[in-house]
Each structure stands twice: as structure tokens, then as C-alpha cells.
Amino acid sequence: MEVFWEVSLTLGAGFVTSILLFILTLAISLPLGLLMAFCSMSKIKPLRFAMKTIVWILRGTPLMLQIFAIFYLPGLLKLFVWPQMHTGWEWFDSTISTRFIAALVAFGINYAAYFSEIFRSGIENIPKGQAEAGQVLGMTKNQIFSKVIFMQVVKNILGPMSNEIITLIKDTALANTISVYELIFYSKKYMLDGLIWPVFYAGAFYLLFVGGLTLLFGWLEKKLSYYKV
Amino acid sequence: MAFLEVKNIRKTFGETAVLKGIDFTLEEGEVLSIIGSSGNGKTTLLRVLNFLERADQGKVLVDGEVIFDSDQTMDEKTIREKRLKLGMVFQNFNLFPQYTALENVALALNLREEEGLKGEKLNFFQKRAKRKEIKEKNSQIAMDILKKVGLEDKANLYPCALSGGQQQRVAIARAMALKPEILCFDEPTSALDPELTGEVLKVIKELKETSNITMIIVTHEMEFAKNISDKVLFMAEGKVEAFGSPQEIFEESNNPIVQAFLKRDWQGEQA
Ligand SMILES: Nc1ncnc2c1ncn2[C@@H]1O[C@H](COP(=O)(O)OP(=O)(O)OP(=O)(O)O)[C@@H](O)[C@H]1O
Ligand SMILES: [Mg+2]
Asked: Does the beta-carbon distance from B94 to A139 stay under 8 Å?
């Protein structure tokens, strides 16, 4: 029983790191993805082309490879080293390590690419007449986007978005490849010590969290079902 | 000087010349119907008048004021001001699905007035109070307009809960809310089931009787055009083929192209 508590506490601490990575990745990749979506729809051809190429690379190579690239390449090429936090708060400093920052950057960019494609198709699927109706009513471009288009896009992309976000929480496990102290990192440690069951126990954490996300997205979908397109 | 002057409007898409020099004038309060067979540039003309396309050449004046001149470039702000002289009702209504009928009508009014708040030095709470005030005032205005199109009891419904005819009436109310001087309709009934066209045409007719608004209506409803119009413009291949009173176009025209069109259309309605 004592072992169970100890494992629970350790895995719990690891999962806090996983969730932190999850939340911060969303905070970066959602706005960045929207920006990238605008770039890939831009009237400026080189910008559009560059963005398509970037998205192609980010979606066309394994995320694990991208994590390695982000973590090791700056040092190898002698460009810069990832910064280290020094707050004096031991848990925080060891959690938000250089490794964590590198993983966060990799996840943020990779997920922004996926999100940008979802945003792009969501925006392009709104009939042209919606923006035109806003125009003839004298609205500005910003007003048209924020008051007319945006909410329709949110409704349209909720399904693909929830899939992607659920995948993200499970993908955070990849951060263990550069030794970020997240959930799988700790359960692997137990495994190397000959204790197998914690790794399956770790699965329950993800399962519970995904259950919560599923409920949340179900609720959102219901909230947005007051109108049909 | 006429109220609306359209001068030598030309528009080319790639290789195809769609408008090949459109000229006409209209007096204040007149209703103009634009007729002609498919693909002749009727929609494009309305879109040019409403700044949804930029004409390659030409001029548009409303009440003596230049609102479009191909020799000038206008910034977005100027265009926004000038385009409000005109309103547009689309073939497919283009209502905003996430807003109720009332909100659809009030939205642009609210946005315009809230924009004015930006210049004022108000704190957060004052701003919020002002916004609320604006919203309430415009809801009342929107409600009054919805009454005019007979939809006050549908004010709080979303477009998806309205019939096509009702949606188009909301779209007309939405355009009217900004008090345009000229209201344009692009085939306002052609996306509707035949039994629903009547209610929309009736609203347009009432608009003519109860207000002094100038209207331009692109339509395939010949009977309606004959009844409501003060002027009829017959378009063929991007040009004004004939222009005159309904009497002159429908009864007295001896232009063979007009005659052929009217005959075919009449037969079409019989079939
Ligand atoms: N954005 C565009 N790009 C290229 N061609 C266009 C564009 N818009 C319209 N056209 C062409 O211009 C011509 C006139 O189109 P328009 O829609 O103005 O005709 P219309 O008289 O309104 O026809 P209908 O009665 O079918 O509505 C058509 O040949 C059409 O293909
Ligand atoms: Mg048309």
C-alpha cells in the first residue's frame, strides 16, 4: 500500500508536468496556428508558398524528430542554448527545465501547423456571401472577422479540433525522449527498476483526462447548437 | 442632374468583358428593374455599385456626390462611408446564422456606434453602460423595422428556424436599418419556393408605397417588374440594350432582342 501511494504521488507530479506542457502548448499553438492560417491564405504569393512548405514539413516528419531537432540542433550548430529557469523553487526549476522549454517550443510549432490547416479549411468553408453581407453593411474587415466569421469557424472546426486536442495530451508523452519529467518519464523509471504496473497505471491518468476533455467538448458542442448553418 | 448617375461602367474578368459601358440615370424615389437573360452582367453591375467589385472604368454619382470614380483610389474608410448610400439584398439572403433576426438587423448599427465610443475618454464601466444603452436603442429600432416586414413575432428566432421568404424579409430589414438612399436587390425571390415569392414581393411593394427610397431590382419576375417599376433597364451582353418606362419596354418596344427575350420568358412562364 505504501508503494502505491508513493507511485501515485510521483506519477501525479509527472502528470502535472504533462498537463502544464499541454496547456502551454495550446496557449502557443492556437494563436500561432491562426496566424499561420492567415499567412497560408495570404494574397502575397511567396508568403503563401513559404507557409505551405513549413506546414508540409511540420506535418510530414515525426514529432519526435522535431523535438530532437529543436532540443539538440541549436547547441550542435552553436547558435544558442535553451534558457534555464532559476526561481529558487526547486520543483519548478527542475520541471520547467531547458528540456521542458525545448519540448514546449517543438509542440507549439508542430501543433500550430495542424491547427492552421484546421483553421484554414474552417475559414474557407464559410460562404463568401457572409463577408460580403458584412461589407455592404459597412463593417470593417476586423469587425467582419470577429463578429461574423469567427463564431461560425469555431462551430465548424469544433470536431476536428477536439480530436487534435485529445491527441495532444497523449503526444506529450513524447517529451520523455528528451527527459522532460512528465508522466511517462516517471513510469519508465519504475519499469527500469523492475516495477511494471505503474506504466499501466499511468494510462489511467490519460484516460481520465481525455474523459474530462470529451465531456467538455460535448458540452461546447451543445452550447453551440442553438443555431444551424 | 439626376439622383443616381451611372456613367460608362466597364468591368472585365480576365479576358471576358462583362460590363461594356453601362450608362443610366434614375430620379429619387424611382424603382428600376433590371432584366435580361442569364450571364449578361446584371449581378456584376449591382456588385460594382455596392463596391463588391471594382469597375475598371466609370463613375457613379448619388445626389451629385461622386461615390465611385475609376480614376481615383479610395481608402477603405472612404469606401465604407460611400457604400452606405447603397444597400444590398442578396439572392441567398446571407443572413448571419449565429444571430437572431433582431440581432441581424441591429448588428451593423451597434458596431458603428460602438466604434464612435473609441474616441471618447470613458472608463470601463461607463463604456459598458454606453454599450448597453446603444444596444437597447438599436434593438428598438430593429424591432420597428421588423414590424414593417411583418416579422416582429419572429424577432428572436435564428435564421435556421425561418422559412426562405421570412429570411429574405429579415435581410431586407437588415439592409433598411442603415437607411440607404438606394436599395439594390439581386433576384430577391429566385432562391425561394414559388409559394414564398409572394410575401417578399409584397414587402418590396409596401416599401415603395410607404417610403421614398430609390430601388434597383434585378429580377426574372416580369409581372412584378411591370407592376412595380418606374423604369426598366434591359441588359444584353454587358450593355444597356433598352431603357424606358415599363410601358415602353414591355408593350411598345420594337427592339428585336427585347421582343425575343420577352416572348421566350412569357413562354417559359407558361411551361
Ligand atoms: N468573379 C468573377 N470572375 C470571373 N468571371 C465572372 C465573375 N463574376 C461573374 N463572372 C462572369 O460574368 C458574366 C456575368 O455574370 P453575372 O453574374 O453578372 O450575370 P447575371 O446577368 O447576373 O446572370 P444571372 O441571370 O444568371 O444571375 C458571367 O459570364 C460570369 O461567368
Ligand atoms: Mg445574377
From this structure: no
> Is the residue at B104 inside a domain?
no
Closest by CA position to B151, among listed B181, B174, B178? B174
Structural domain that includes position B65: 22-96+165-270
Asked if B44 contacts B19 with a C-beta cutoff of 8 angstroms, the reply is: yes
Residue B87 is assigned to a structural domain of this protein? yes
ipTM (interface pTM): 0.92
CATH of the domain at B231: 3.40.50.300
Q: What is the largest CA-CA distance in chain B?
A: 69
A128 → chain B, closest CA residue: B94
Residue B102 lies inside a defined structural domain of this protein: no
**Assigned domain for B115 exists:** no
How deeply is A205 buried, as exposed, middle or buried, from its count of CB atoms within 10 A (0-12, 13-18, 19+)?
Answer: buried
Min CA distance, A123 vs chain B (Å)? 15
Measured in angstroms, how far is the CA atom of residue A49 from the centroid of ligand 1? 30
pTM: 0.88
Distance from CA of B182 to the nearest CA of A (A): 12
Class of domain A20-223: mainly alpha
Q: What is the pLDDT of residues B34-74, one digit of tens each?
A: 999 999 999 999 999 999 999 999 999 999 999 999 999 98
Give B-chain residues touching A135 at CB under 8 angstroms. Answer: 51-52, 83
Three cell numbers at B120? 471618447
The domain spans of chain A are 20-223
pLDDT in tens, B187-235: 999 999 999 999 999 999 999 999 989 999 999 999 999 999 999 999 9
The number of domains in chain B is 1
